[in-house]
Specification:
This is Type I restriction enzyme R protein N-terminal domain-containing protein. The chain has 205 residues and is of the alpha+beta class. Helix content is 39%, strand content 24%. Strands 1, 2, 3, 4, 5, 6, 7 and 8 form an 8-stranded mixed beta sheet that branches. 36% of the residues are buried.
């Protein structure tokens, strides 16, 4: 079944017997945003029609932000763009972005475990979260590490929302983050990267 078949969080919670709660679990971790990226993002938001499609959002805003933070973690993780996920009949589709363990075999190998999924939605956050939550369930099934905390992000490029899945507990962060507060946004995304890195290193020991 495609991730896009799930239109709301409620559908996913009911279908996979999850427990749902909302709380502010994000603990922002300072990340220094370089001036060049600030200028590029400002230029794109000012001069380009970035909200004409989800592809435009991804290309002009979302990917540059994710890539900048990923660069600080590139020895541990790979940033995958629109890579097929899921090889079972229950859940299968293509997330917009996925953060996974970097394979010792090289950058071309799509290796587990997976840690973070990111979905771009023009405006429909409800639908975006249905899709993202289904992706979190899928990567949990593929990883086969139910105690691992997995992170999901849904964004329309301006507003960024966060959730996490651990075992059967799905938790959505109550507060969202806005692109106009770039330092706060980067600190929030940096938190999920850092927490994922901690888990990767713990599992490797």
């Amino acid at each position: 079944m495609s991730f896009t078949s799930y239109k709301t969080l409620s559908q996913v919670v009911q279908s996979f017997h999850l427990s749902y709660q909302e709380t502010n679990f994000i603990e922002p971790q300072v990340f220094t945003v370089n001036d060049y990226l600030r200028a590029e993002l400002t230029f794109n938001l000012t001069e380009l029609v970035v909200d004409s499609s989800e592809y435009a959002l991804c290309e002009n805003i979302i990917y540059p932000i994710l890539r900048e933070i990923w660069k600080a973690y590139k020895t541990d993780f790979m940033l995958w763009s629109h890579h097929p996920l899921g090889e079972n009949e229950t859940l299968t589709d293509i997330p917009d972005y996925l953060i996974a363990k970097r394979s010792p075999l090289g950058k071309i190998v799509f290796e587990q475990p997976y840690f973070i999924v990111v979905e771009a939605k023009k405006d429909n956050f409800s639908e975006g979260w249905g899709q993202c939550a289904a992706e979190l369930v899928a990567i949990q099934q593929l990883n086969q590490i139910p105690e691992q905390t997995l992170f999901g992000i849904v964004t329309n490029a301006e507003r960024w929302e966060f959730a996490k899945l651990q075992q059967q507990q799905l938790t959505k962060n109550q507060s969202g983050y806005q692109i106009e507060n770039l330092n706060e946004l980067f600190a929030a995304i940096n938190y999920v990267f850092l927490e994922s890195q901690k888990q990767l290193k713990t599992n490797s020991n």
